[in-house]
Amino acid sequence: MTAVLDEVPVAAAAPAPASRGRLVLARLLAAPGALVGMAVVVLLFLLAFVGPYLTQWHYTDIDYSALREPPSGTHWFGTGGLGQDVYAQTLRGLQKSLIIGLLVALLSTVAAGLVGSCAGYFGGWADRLLMFFVDLMLVFPSFLIIAIISPRLQSGGWIAFVVLLAAFNWMITARVVRSMTISLKEREFVRAARFMGVRPLRIIWRHILPNAASYLIVDATIAVGAAVMSETALSYFGFGVKAPDVSLGTLIANGTDAAPSYPWMFYFAAGLLVLFVLAVNLIGDGLRDALDPTAEAGRRRSARSERKSRQGKA
């Protein structure tokens, strides 16, 4: 018996399956668009927060001897109508827009996740009440309300502006999370936790939100670009960041009239805005494909079918 057992080959240990995090990271690193987007965003953050230390000019400094001067060795991006250093002002505006975009995306995503998951899990009167509030917020013209309220919140600074933007940027996401929660709460692991007496809020935190995290992450990534665009639009019309502080929106608004004659006053800020929004969208597309491989497969199938149909017509 011992000899027989000795002759039986020992099975090699099966390799441990890769975790979901590693698989998502591998898919994300395999997406060239997402890598380019992440590299651009990192470079923009470095430019915004390290770049100001590379020049002697502060964004509030004024050089009265150089009014609307083109880019030079002294003023790398040129100067404005009052002698402001456009390089220093552009990086300050980029800082403010990046911070506002990140905070708005974070606050709106947290609000959407909590409201949507609570409405979908509890159902009944809680669902009706929360969804009535969501529908009511969707009816309100957000741009008009922000334009009316923001001048009255100047004492709160740009933080109050962030809260105001986030307050009107979470409702659609909350409805999607609610639908996901309704389907998730009937899954076996959620029902088992409920039968074991786990409290509802703990179930939402431990089981519902982690399973909706892929959608929330992608939505938050896209919301950063949307928040920056909203801040830019409101600041362009004078409802956002107030002087003496600047943002990309205020710089674009101040340089619009001078763009044909003094393009450096407009195109540096506008170019950074477009570059950041495009990079964030590339990251969002990469995250969506990494977290949901069927989306990429579906696009490939549709592209193949479109090519076949074109070949058939030819």
What is the topology?
Elements: H1 2-7, H2 20-29, H3 32-50, H4 86-122, H5 124-139, H6 142-149, H7 157-167, H8 171-184, H9 188-195, H10 200-211, H11 213-236, H12 248-255, H13 264-291, H14 293-313
Outline of the structure:
This protein has helices at 2-7, 20-29, 32-50, 86-122, 124-139, 142-149, 157-167, 171-184, 188-195, 200-211, 213-236, 248-255, 264-291, 293-313.
Overview of this protein structure:
- The chain is an all-alpha fold and about 325 residues long.
- Helices cover about 70% and strands about 0% of the residues.
Which labels suit this protein?
314 residues; mainly alpha; disordered N terminus; 0% strand
